[in-house]
Amino acid sequence: MAASTRLGPKVLLLVHLGVFSWYLFTIWSNCSLQTADRHPGLRSYGGRWKYLTFINLVMHAVFFGLCVLVDAVHSAVSVKQSRSGTPLNLSRARDFYFTVLAFPVGTFVFVSFWTLYTYDRELVYPKLLDEIIPIWLNHAMHTVIMPLLLLQMFLQNHRYPSRTAGIFSLAVFVALYLSWVLWVHHASGIWVYPIMAHLSPVGLCVFLGGASLSMAPLYLLGEKLSLMMWSSTGNQKKKKK
Q1: Which domain holds residue 139?
Q2: Could you confirm whether the keyword Aminoacyl-tRNA synthetase appears in this record (predicted)?
């Protein structure tokens, strides 16, 4: 049978446990900032939960927590038992979570943040935040997420759903987040990100529409990278619509 991981189950469990612990520590550090009262966004409607960066951190923590659970279950049951249903279902849930949410959303956070930051940081991460959020925490939220995703993709093969199901599920998430962003503005009169306040209504529609549509190519990118990394094992099948 073709390999689905590049590490033994116990080593893989330790890796996932380490990454899971890192995300818990990052979230705890974010939530326990002693200068949080100076952060204009954290004191406003929705708090941290209106930022995709924070939602992404929580999503990744949940994902790697699920990886730890799957690894632990697979280590605890026999091969015969693993074919009975529950571990297999957990593995499918892990794969769906990674392919549909963790990779495309995490990649979007990484690319969009550093693109806007390079162009004009005041549009996404005003300089005043440097006095509130430590540099290491900024990189933990916006940079480290990408190599950890690529590491996970390299270490473990994830079966992709059909493209229709995968992109539709991702579109549902995007629609829910956009609805939340618009509700925050409706309820409080503020935009989640500074760049939105500088755009005209047409510009805002173009910006939000472009950001939303970029999710599909990122989903396909994940599928392509996974195929490249695992094609030699014969265990990765390209999905058709």
Answers
A1: 9-233
A2: no
